[in-house]
């Protein structure tokens, strides 16, 4: 497919890129970088983890790199060549719509009816944000496609248009190539030998297919095809084995580890392969994870497949792991995975490192996605297929299998194409083994005329973007991390968490009110509790204190721009300490999210009530102003009291100096002063950090006025 972007399409793509990864205004960049640097300093305090990290000036420079500087349009055009024809047709239509005023309005609900590239940066940001709020899954996924495409082409480019190193790499201290140790010479790598298709095509004659005969033809050379084609099982037993591989072989010594080129060379559709609705991009992993015990048990009991709980199956797994050098002993975790591992251990979760096929080598180069620079990863091409080659097996690369052929009810071989699809290949075989992977084996079987209704219907894709709290209408996922895994499997949904969170919050509020206000009658306590645990109060706490709207994917048009603006006003007024409140009906989903979040933290903290009290009670009380409970008391919202030994609280006074208050308010009488009948306007909430056995947690605390 020859693809050429038009001027209008180029203008649209560049405008999208400028919106997502373009230069930031100076004030915005300074705020973001300053916040990031504060976070780095807080997290690395007392350690040397901040050593070698980018400086503030380097990060500021990163925010000013323009997509044009890296020739982004040319990179995007190259990557789009990998799109299937039908997918490119869809993408082309979207680009056309965004190049028109009416199309931009229809697709993005933009503020003005002008082509996307004529919108202001702010209007473009709102337009792209609207895509994520669409009620149509494909429209929501458009933003993810745009974001992934332009971000990858921006960060993966090696050099700028001026021939200099990518300034993003330079400022972020990214080396761009393996530097763990010196790469071995070419002679230390084993290199397979492939059948010479060019010579065979000449012998067959122009227009004639190449015809080969074998005992066993194996389609695919990966984790499945490699094992099937082993010397011990087939080739070494005297069978003629021919392995057909769609990809083209690249020698590890020739790898430049250029990310753009690497993804183009080594990944299906240059890593642009997506599900039909664009909701998920498909990539392979680098882990060597045996089927979990729970999964084998399910297969054996639910689906009546007892083999998966047999000793024979366990022996087979052990054989594969031994030959492939699979072990967790040499795994060194990066910082995020080590934090995950340590946290799981502290919480008492069963956790273990995911084994890798490094044959006992400490392997932390960080470039495994683009191949192994040291020849240490024990993929099938250097283990099983090497054994097969030593026993006489033959290989064809760059071979696309069109279909399996049959004689009566038995497979008789395959029909394929080689040499970039220019020459047909016919293989006659006694046995055909399809190991084209979970994506392509079903497609091959369907192309071959098989009509079993189960073919291709049971593929399950595993998302790596974690969904923490999920609606019951959405499929539940088994979540694993890259180099660590736990056996904690969450099969519930957010409504179950909401049920628990509702009870927890009510307990906290009732206990607090009962202890803090011993003179209140049951009616007053009930009224105050009702106002505090209302959808309005919980929703405001979720938005103002936890910014839950920024991490929720609702797929609902209820979150229209008008509502978003009102919520922004609500946050602004609260931050300013104003008692004014914009008229906005708080969607119940935010209150539900607050309750579910509370329950999730409670469970993660080992059902520790003190933890959720420290995290959630202060923020909740901070949004319940005196107007909401005027019929109960005309006093300011009462201060929280400690119902357990108090933690150390670090606050900041008006002059900006840190003040340590050990045992703040401990033992004081916090009852309202009954002699003071005047309503007191609450001071603005201020952020403090509370020191517990966990990491510092940001809370909101309301102080009494000085004149009370």
UniProtKB/TrEMBL annotation:
GO terms for molecular function: flavin adenine dinucleotide binding; oxidoreductase activity, acting on CH-OH group of donors; ribonuclease III activity. The keyword Oxidoreductase applies. Gene3D superfamilies: Cholesterol Oxidase, domain 2, FAD/NAD(P)-binding domain, Ribonuclease III domain. Residues 454-606 form the RNase III domain. One of its GO terms (biological process) is RNA processing. InterPro entries: FAD/NAD-bd_sf, GMC_OxRdtase_N, RNase_III_dom, RNase_III_sf. The keyword Oxidoreductase applies. PROSITE patterns: RNASE_3_1 (PS00517), RNASE_3_2 (PS50142). Residues 635-708 are annotated as: Disordered. Residues 662-686 have a biased composition (Basic and acidic residues). Pfam families: GMC_oxred_N, Ribonuclease_3. Keywords: FAD, Flavoprotein, Oxidoreductase. Belongs to the GMC oxidoreductase family. PANTHER family: LONG-CHAIN-ALCOHOL OXIDASE. This is RNase III domain-containing protein. It comes from Aphanomyces astaci (Crayfish plague agent).
């Amino acid at each position: 497919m020859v693809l050429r972007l038009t001027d209008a399409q180029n203008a649209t793509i560049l405008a999208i890129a400028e919106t997502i990864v373009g230069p930031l205004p100076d004030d915005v960049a300074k705020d973001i970088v300053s916040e990031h640097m504060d976070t780095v300093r807080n997290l690395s305090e007392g350690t040397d983890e901040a050593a070698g990290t980018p400086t503030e000036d380097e990060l500021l420079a990163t925010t000013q790199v323009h997509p044009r500087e890296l020739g982004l349009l040319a990179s995007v055009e190259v990557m789009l060549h990998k799109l299937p024809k039908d997918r490119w047709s869809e993408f082309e239509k979207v680009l056309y719509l965004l190049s028109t005023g009416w199309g931009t309005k229809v697709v993005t609900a933009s503020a003005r009816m002008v082509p996307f590239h004529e919108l202001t940066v702010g209007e473009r940001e709102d337009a792209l944000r609207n895509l994520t709020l669409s009620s149509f899954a494909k429209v929501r996924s458009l933003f993810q496609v745009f974001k992934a495409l332009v971000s990858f082409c921006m960060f993966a480019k090696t050099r700028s248009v001026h021939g200099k190193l990518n300034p993003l790499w330079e400022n972020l201290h990214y080396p761009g190539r393996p530097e763990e140790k010196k790469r071995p010479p070419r002679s230390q790598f084993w290199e397979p030998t492939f059948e010479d298709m060019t010579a065979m095509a000449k012998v067959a004659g122009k227009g004639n297919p190449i015809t080969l005969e074998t005992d066993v033809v194996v389609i695919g050379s990966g984790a499945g095809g490699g094992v099937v084609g082993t010397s011990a099982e087939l080739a070494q037993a005297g069978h003629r084995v021919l392995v057909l591989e769609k990809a083209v072989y690249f020698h590890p010594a020739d790898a430049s580890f250029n990310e753009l080129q690497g993804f183009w060379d080594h990944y299906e559709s240059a890593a642009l392969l997506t599900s039909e609705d664009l909701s998920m991009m498909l990539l392979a992993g680098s882990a060597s994870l045996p089927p979990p015990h729970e999964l084998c048990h399910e297969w054996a009991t639910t689906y009546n497949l007892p083999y998966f709980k047999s000793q024979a199956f366990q022996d087979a797994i052990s054989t594969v792991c031994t030959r492939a050098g699979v072990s967790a002993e040499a795994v060194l975790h990066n910082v995020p995975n080590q934090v995950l591992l340590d946290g799981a251990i502290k919480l008492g979760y069963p956790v273990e490192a995911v084994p890798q096929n490094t044959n006992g080598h400490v392997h932390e180069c960080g470039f495994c996605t683009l191949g192994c620079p040291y020849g240490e990863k024990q993929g099938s091409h250097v283990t099983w297929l090497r054994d097969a080659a030593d026993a006489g097996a033959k290989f064809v690369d760059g071979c696309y299998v069109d279909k399996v052929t049959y004689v009566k009810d038995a497979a008789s071989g395959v029909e394929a194409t080689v040499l970039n699809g220019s020459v047909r290949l016919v293989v006659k075989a006694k046995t055909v083994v399809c190991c084209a992977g979970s994506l392509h084996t079903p497609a091959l079987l369907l192309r071959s005329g098989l009509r079993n209704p189960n073919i291709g219907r049971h593929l399950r894709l595993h998302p790596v973007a974690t969904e923490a709290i999920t609606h019951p209408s959405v499929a539940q996922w088994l979540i694993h991390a890259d180099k660590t895994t736990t056996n904690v499997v969450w099969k519930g949904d957010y409504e179950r968490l909401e049920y628990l969170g509702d009870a927890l919050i009510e307990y906290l509020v009732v206990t607090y009110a009962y202890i803090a206000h011993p003179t209140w009658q049951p009616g007053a306590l009930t009224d105050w509790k009702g106002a505090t645990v209302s959808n309005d109060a919980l929703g405001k706490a979720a938005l103002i204190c936890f910014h839950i709207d920024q991490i929720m994917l609702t797929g609902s048009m209820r979150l229209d721009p008008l509502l978003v603006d009102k919520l922004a006003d609500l946050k602004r007024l609260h931050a300013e300490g104003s008692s004014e409140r914009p008229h906005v009906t708080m969607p119940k989903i935010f209150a539900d999210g607050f309750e579910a979040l509370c329950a999730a933290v409670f469970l993660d903290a080992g059902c520790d009530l003190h933890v959720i009290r420290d995290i959630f009670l202060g923020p909740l009380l901070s949004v319940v102003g005196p107007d909401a409970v005027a019929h109960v008391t005309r006093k300011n919202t009462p201060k929280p009291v400690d119902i357990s030994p108090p933690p150390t609280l670090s606050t900041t006074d008006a002059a900006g100096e840190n003040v340590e208050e050990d045992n703040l308010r401990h033992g004081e009488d916090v009852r309202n002063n009954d002699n003071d009948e005047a309503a007191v306007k609450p001071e603005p909430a201020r952020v403090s950090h509370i020191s517990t056995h966990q990491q510092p947690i940001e809370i909101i605390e309301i102080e009494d006025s000085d004149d009370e």
